[in-house]
Specification:
This protein has no helices and seven strands. It is mainly beta. Helix content is 0%, strand content 40%.
Amino acid sequence: MTIKAIDDAGNLDTTRNDIVELYLTSVSYDKPMAQLTTKKIQLMDGIGSAYIQGEVPEVVDITVQ
């Protein structure tokens, strides 16, 4: 998945080059069956990426801080 930092005007914030943390919460199960490949990503010009891995279909919420 691709993570983009958005400013208050709704535009890509290309000044963001910081590290953000990702949190995965399952909507389908009591505990997540899927996993993130990393819990922290480095934004480069406001954009970063990570992968979600799992062996069964699952609905998840991803939170970025």
